[in-house]
Amino acid sequence: MDVTPGSTAGHGAASITLERIGKRYPDGTEAVRELSLEVKAGELVVLIGPSGCGKSTVLRMINRLIEPTHGRILLGDDDVTRLDPVALRRRVGYVIQNVGLFPHQTVATNVATVPGLLGWSRERTRERVHELLELVGLDPAQFGRRYPHELSGGQRQRVGVARALAADPVVLLMDEPFSAVDPIVRTRLQEEFLRLQAEVRKTIVLVTHDLDEAVRLGDRIAVLSEGGRLEQYDTPAALLGSPASPFVREFVGADRGIRRLAVTPVTRDVLDPLPADGAAGLPTVPLGGSAYDALGALLTSATEHAVVTEEGRPVGVLSRARVLGLGVVD
Ligand SMILES: Nc1ncnc2c1ncn2[C@@H]1O[C@H](COP(=O)(O)OP(=O)(O)OP(=O)(O)O)[C@@H](O)[C@H]1O
C-alpha cells in the first residue's frame, strides 16, 4: 500500500474538542448530560461503555447527524455548528457497522460518493478511487466494478473505510466498524487498519463494545457510563493497570492483568544478564515486543527464561516471573 505525500495525507488531521456537550432527545431522554473531551490531532480515541450510555449519540454530534442540545464542538479551532454541511462532510469521514454501502452502485461509485457531492472532475475522482482501493488492499481493476453483494463482509468493510477517506477528511468517525465480521476477519481488519492509520494519521473517534478492540486500537480510551458520563480517559495500559473507579474496574474485567500484558512492551529494565553458559535451547523474543507474546513463547517452550534480542542480537534474558510481574495491576 503506497500513499503519495500530499494526497491522502495532504490535509492532515485536526483536533476535536467537546465542551460540555449534551443531548436531550425530543421524548425527554437525556442521552448525554454533559461531556467534555479532547482528542488530539492524529490520535485514535475509542469510546466504550455499556449499551445505551450515549456513545453513538456523542459520535453523531461530532458530524451533526445529531444536533447537540447544549455545548460546543470544535474541529481544530472551528465550531462545527458554524461550518456549512458540505464543508463538514468534506472534513469528517464516517464509517458505520454494516458499512451502509449503496447496494445498487458499484464499489467505485460508492467510494466516489463524497467527491461526487463536492463536484470533483471525473478524472480526479477516478484517480482518487483507484488510489483508495489500493490503499485498503483491494485491486481496483478487480473490485471497482463489483456490487456490494459480490463482496465478503471484510471486503465491504474496507470499501466503507475507502469511501470515508475519499475526500481526505481531517477526522474519521467509526461506529462499531468491525463488529459485523467474524472474529478472525475482525482481527485482520484491525491490524490492517492500524497499518493504514500509521500512514494516513487521521484523528479518529471509534465506538466499540469490544474491550479487546479498544485496547488493541486506542491511543486512549474513554470509558463512558449512563448519560455519557466520562468515567476514565486514559491509555490502554493505564486504564487496565489503574482503573479510576469501581465502575471501570468492573468494566475492564477480572482478566485485565492478562489484557495489560498485550499492551506492555518488553523493555531492557526487566531483563537479567545473559547466562555465562549460553542460552541454547531458550526461545527468543524481540525487545519491544509485547509481554503477552513473550509469555506465550515461554509457555510454549516450557522454559523458565527467554532470550531477548535486538536486531537479532541477544541483549538479556527474560524470566517468567518478570513477565508475570508486568501484568500486575492495582
Ligand atoms: N432518537 C432517539 N430518541 C430518543 N432516545 C434516543 C434516541 N436515540 C437514542 N436514544 C437513547 O439515548 C440513549 C443513548 O443512545 P446511544 O445510541 O447513543 O447509546 P450507545 O451507547 O451508542 O448504545 P449501544 O452501545 O447500545 O449502541 C439510549 O438510552 C437510547 O435509547
TrEMBL record:
Keywords: ATP-binding, Nucleotide-binding, Transport. This is ATP-binding cassette domain-containing protein. Residues 16-252 form the ABC transporter domain. GO terms for molecular function: ATP binding. InterPro entries: AAA+_ATPase (IPR003593), ABC_transporter-like_ATP-bd (IPR003439), ABC_transporter-like_CS (IPR017871), P-loop_NTPase (IPR027417). Signal peptide: none annotated. It comes from Micromonospora solifontis. The keyword ATP-binding applies. Belongs to the ABC transporter superfamily. The keyword Transport applies.
